[in-house]
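Changelog note: in this version the structure field was regenerated for every chain. One regenerated record is shown below for reference.
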Amino acid sequence: MIKLLVVDDSPLMRRLLVDIFTEAGGFDVAVARGAAEALDLLAEVAPDVITLDIHMPGMDGLACLDRIMIERPCPVVMVSALTGEGADETLEAIELGAVDFIAKPRGALSLEIDSVVPALVEKVRAAAGARISRTTRLRERVRAKAAGAAEPKPAAPRRSAPVAAPLPPEGLVLVGCSTGGPPALDALLGNLPEDFPWPILVAQHMPASFTGPLARRLDKLCALRVQEVTGTAVLVPGNVYIGRGDADLVVTRRAGALAAAAAPSSAEYFWHPSVDRLVASAMKVVAPERLVGVLMTGMGNDGAGAMTELKALGGTTLAESADSAVIWGMPGALVGAGGATVVAPLDQLATELLACFAR
């Protein structure tokens, strides 16, 4: 039985969430009417997972989350509005240690809540098993390690086969992630130099209103230039291209040049932007040996199939190890299929990626 604490100042939202998780089964649900009450209940309830509203009177959700992560670290799923402001606040919450978020439905809450129930239940179940001790304040810990602060010795990378000769001058890096992805992207991209030799394309599962703020946030935090792909963009080394949420990101050739394009989401794929579709599209226009796939934290198995094929055809694939992944679903599926060239903790992935270009 998963012990769930629902924190929301709205009586209607609390009742709806209690009904949803009670009907789903497998949850022991407690409620708090605000941040102060939630903090008082932490020791008594000892929740396995918390759903936490961002906007509450008095202490808001961000301040409450900060206290939770200090006083009793616990997987937290934020309940957020699908707005630009809500996206910025949600990304800040993930940076503070939240595992995931669920967007509030638009329109009348009691009428629209059914549209988010499957994703809500799936995310909260997955979050209950998240490795919170390894992911809390992940970016700060990775950067502290880079600055020489003390850090437990990470696991050594595992290689299924030696990485071949240095990669050719033209190629692409294809990155996929989902739950826990924003801080993982910060840790990966933040340790790459401004003159990184290949363009980097990212499929991060997110709604459309969140991927633009994510790109802007990453652009401020790393040396690489980061942009959201909303139309078509010619690919340039030293640039990162974030797929627009609720759509797919594909690789094409335009007048002989490699380009990234936003494509309507395909029903053939369950998650969007789809990692499998991104990798499959790249293999149609770029030789596999000129592609590097990187699969990081996330629930499900998106990207595992296409990256396993990529490795079989001569490409290189890097998978985040279970030691650091918030949820080892996507990279775990790649490793389980034998499709990972290298398996390494998050704080070593940038080093492993740069090693592919060493001469």
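Spot check on this record: The CA atoms of residues 83 and 141 lie 30 Å apart. The first helix runs from residue 11 to 24.
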